[in-house]
Specification:
The protein is mostly helical and about 70 residues long. It has helices spanning about 15-35, 50-65. The chain folds into 2 domains: about 1-40, no CATH class; about 40-70.
Length: about 70
């Protein structure tokens, strides 16, 4: 089952400087981790019959998302 998540609202353009930059960075990180970002890989639940290789692949995807490396 696919759950659609709402995108975080755009950071107001009236907030500038270091505060605006910090809010934009936080927004990008939250979207990446939660999968709202269109570029983030889609994670699906593994079946109870998943192999060790499938578990490792999925875990590596989660780690990549948390590290934001994509490698």
């Amino acid at each position: 089952m696919t759950v659609l998540k709402q995108q975080i609202p755009t950071v107001m353009t009236t907030v500038g400087g270091a505060t605006g930059d910090a809010l934009k960075a936080i927004k990008q990180n939250i979207e990446l981790i939660t999968g709202v970002n269109p570029g983030a890989p889609v994670l699906t639940q593994l079946p109870s019959t998943a192999t060790l290789a499938q578990v490792i692949t999925t875990l590596n995807t989660v780690i990549q998302r948390l590290n934001q490396q994509g490698q």
